[in-house]
Every structure is written in C-alpha cells, then in structure tokens.
Amino acid sequence: MLPEAAPGDGLTHGAGRAFRYNRLMLWLKALHVVFVVTWFAGLFYLPRLFVYHVATTDAAGVARFVVMERRLFFIMTCGALLAVLFGASMIIAAPGYLALGWLRAKLLLVAALVGYHAWCYQLMRALRAARPAHSQRWYRLFNELPLLLLVAIVVLAVVKPA
Question: What is the pLDDT of residues 65-124, one digit of tens each?
Fold first, then answer.
C-alpha cells in the first residue's frame, strides 16, 4: 500500500496526493522494467534454442528441446503480458505522455516486438511438428532482431528525443 500523508510530515493535502501519485508511477515503472527484462531474456534465449534444436538429430534431444522451448515460451509470454500491463498502467495513470513522439515511437517498436514474439511461437510450433523452415544460420540471424529493438526502445525511453 502507498503511504498516506501523515500529520506533521510537512505534506499538504495536494502535496500528499502528488507524493502518492509519484510513488505509484515509480512502482509501476519498476515492475514494468522487471517484466521487460523477463520478456527479453526469453526473446534472446528461445531463438538460440531453435539453433540447437535444428542441429539435433536424436529423438531424445529433439524431445528435450520441444519441452525447453514450450516452458521458456510460457515464461516469456508471462513476462510480455505483465510488461505490457504495467506499461499500459503507466499510460492510463499519465495519458498526457501519449502526446510525446518518443513514446509513440516506443509503442510502435513494442508492437513490432509483440509481432516478433508471435513469430517465435510460429517457429516453435513448426519445430515441434518436425517442420523446421530455416537453417541454423537463419535462426542465428533471427536471434539478433530483439537486440536491435531493445537498443531502440531503451534509447527512446531513456533519452526521450523530441
């Protein structure tokens, strides 16, 4: 629970409300960052599992990768959903930020990231069905896309260019 302005703490009613609002935004931002990290950990590792999956020829190894990919996808999807939820919560708490170009650009990149996430799901299903559509090299290059999105998103969120 967020702290209330207490008698004698020097906060007027309006200042106490601003203090609680700022604390709420900090909590939302902290939780957003935690789940973005969770999401990106999965986005970086899942395509690497695809590389190894394609290279594996024995049935036990393939089965192991199917299980690992499914579990990792579940965890990264939870991270994605919670990152989006806390990000949306910040926008709901401060809708004026939507007028800023850097946030709109960031949200566009997040939409691309969601598309990449969905693409990973399709690739995972194809591998599970023993229908790999690509080579190890392709999966290695595919693994670099979230890094480019991460760099752009972090620059937008931290630098906030006009």
Answer: 999 999 999 999 999 999 999 999 999 999 999 999 999 999 999 999 999 999 999 999
Q: How many Cβ atoms from other residues are within 10 Å of residue 105's Cβ?
A: 15
Domain ranges of the chain: 31-159
pTM of the full structure: 0.86
Query: Can you point out the beta strands (E) in 45-95?
Result: none
Which pairs count as long-range contacts for 139-147, CB under 8 Å and 24+ apart, including other chains?
Answer: 139/47, 139/50, 139/51, 139/54, 140/47, 140/51, 142/47, 142/50, 143/44, 143/47, 143/48, 143/50, 143/51, 145/116, 146/40, 146/43, 146/44, 146/113, 146/116, 147/44
Residue 155 CA to residue 27 CA, distance in Å, equals 21
**Are 5 and 23 in contact, with CB atoms under 8 Å apart?**
no
